Amino acid sequence: MHTTVRAAVLREVNYKEADKILTLLTGEMGKVTVTARGCRRKSSPLSAACQQLVYGEFVLYEYQGRWGVKEASTLRQFRGLFREVERVALAGYFAELTELLTQEELPAGEVLSLFLNSLHALDQGPWPREQVKAAFELKLLALAGYEPLVDACAVCGREPERPMLHLSQGVLHCDTCREAVGEGISMPLTPGGLAALRHILWGDHKRLFSFRLDPQSLGQLGDLAEAYLAARLERGFRTLDLYKQLTAEE
Ligand SMILES: [Zn+2]
Question: How many A from CA of 171 to the centre of ligand 1?
Fold first, then answer.
């Protein structure tokens, strides 16, 4: 059986002498593991598209319950990422997170769009890396079923003057309502940071990164996004550690 899919390459692992095993993300079929035979040979017509962070069109064949790549062509390469090692590292983290939060045989059109838009934003957008990172993390978590409730304070129902997000419960509250929320860590946001958070969660996905924050508010939103992700997923990421090492001096 043959099928043609448009997919982003989330991961590549070398296999045997000249093959790769790829993890693809498609809109229709979710995550798919495929073998690309011979693609590490320079002369292979598969070699250009069978690389991590490429968006391509793949003709797949099924053989004994596994998928192989018959043809592959590149639709988008995001070359601008490779001008800066920090951007490549961040894109690698996006790929690792996306792989974790998607499943086989479960359509993932929205996540695929988010992933491609985020690579495009890192490649060509005017936004700071930290802004793209926070928006990607929060939006991906929301699409994966971990959307925090941020319409009003979870305790008193009012718009918080000094907003905080309770990480393990994923709810907004006022700093004065802190005790009533229960145990666990809460992190502060500026009112501007809260508006940006709502924009990320509720706004038009095509304008996901289009918000402006002062450095303090952006720093807090970035810290919150990362801490919320760690609290929800209860694990760390090797690719995130690498990104943080690279940017530690900034
Ligand atoms: Zn309150």
Answer: 11
